[in-house]
Specification:
Length: 200
């Protein structure tokens, strides 16, 4: 398995948004439409933390054609937009959702050969970084662990300073504090080794 990352170009709404605001975007799905008159994309994105004021910035972005709010907590939006890389991603192995964008940089898992994508992005003046990662067995999160982790992130449990206590988060989730603490400890023990491999 490889992990790819690349700085998104200026003019890409998601890159511009995450550079301008302190938030992380999780792209859940993306479709590229390329035709002879141009190209456009439709993306479903979760913004963490949920900042409604970010909507104004998105709607006013010159590359954005339409925004539909699907959910307010966490803020989930469907965005139709032009994409300067749509033709590249449609022709090559594009980032497979879900992937994250933070501070203008996208990062995604890639199972195939990244050389074609690297070459095509290089032709556009963009650099892609590819790291090989060995994923250990049993490190995948269960659906329930993923759900609890995403809610903890969205509610601000991992913010600094924290916006919510463990007890408050447990109450919101309708589970015991001890179960929540144990679940987050298991999640962290699975994810932290991966983070150390990626950034080591």
């Amino acid at each position: 398995m490889m992990v790819c990352s690349s700085e998104l170009p200026r003019g890409c709404w998601l890159g511009d948004l995450t550079r301008a605001r302190s938030l992380r975007a999780r792209v859940v799905s993306i479709f590229f439409h390329v035709h002879e008159n141009g190209s456009c994309s439709t993306s479903r994105v979760i913004l963490l933390p949920s900042k409604p004021d970010a909507l104004e910035l998105i709607i006013s972005h010159e590359a954005v054609d339409e925004v539909i709010v699907e959910n307010e907590r966490p803020l989930t939006i469907l965005v139709r937009h032009t994409c300067p890389l749509a033709d590249v991603f449609a022709a090559a192995a594009h980032p497979t959702p879900p992937f994250t964008v933070q501070a203008g940089r996208a990062e995604w898992d890639h199972a195939g050969d990244g050389e074609e994508l690297r070459r095509m992005l290089r032709d556009r003046g963009l650099r892609i970084t590819v790291r090989r990662v060995r994923r250990g067995r049993g490190r995948e999160l269960t659906p329930r662990q993923r759900e609890i982790l995403l809610r903890a992130i969205e509610e601000g449990y991992y913010d600094f300073p924290r916006r919510i206590t463990l007890s408050e988060l447990a109450d919101k989730l309708g589970i015991s504090k001890s179960y929540l603490s144990e679940t987050l400890a298991k999640v962290e023990s699975k994810l932290l080794p991966e983070i150390l491999i990626l950034h080591g």
